[in-house]
Amino acid sequence: PLRCTGDALRAFHTAIRSSPVNTKNQAMKEQAQGTMLKVLMSFKSSEIEQAVNSLDRNGVDLLMKYIYKGFEKPTENSSAILLQWHEKVRVWCSLGSATLRRVLASALV
Predict the structure, then answer these.
(1) Nearest to 51 by CA among 14, 20, 99
(2) pLDDT in tens, 37-75
(3) What SS3 class is residue 49?
(4) Angle, to 10 degrees, between the axis of helix 5-17 and the axis of helix 57-72?
(5) Cα dihedral value 55, 60, 63, 64, nearest 10
(6) Which pLDDT belongs to residue 82?
(7) Does this model's pTM top 0.70?
(8) Which of 15, 43, 80, 88 could bridge 52 with an S-S bond, Cβ 3.0-4.6 Å?
(9) By the 8 A CB rule, do 68 and 33 touch?
(10) Distance (Å, rounded) from C-alpha 47 to C-alpha 73?
(11) Hey, is 23 helix, strand or coil?
(12) How far apart are CA 74 and CA 21, in angstroms?
């Protein structure tokens, strides 16, 4: 498990950077989703805001996509943790931001 904040943050950035966004390979996408979910679940509540704030807009957009994908296939306690992430992203974006609209629009494609 990723016990140290620095380890979790490094794993988080690695998972974001290595995300297979342009692939059609469903198995690869599912593997990346599983990895990201494990990383997100490794954070303490008090560390989530720092992780979200370390991303640029594209990173936050991608994170939000992973959060919504996680809601589609919940595991034990994942929804509660993903809701915490969602709230921090929502605050980061501020109400009315285009991030949520971009994520939802791309999910429909």
Answers:
(1) 14
(2) 999 999 999 999 999 999 998 999 999 999 999 999 898
(3) helix
(4) 90
(5) 160
(6) 97
(7) yes
(8) 88
(9) no
(10) 24
(11) coil
(12) 21
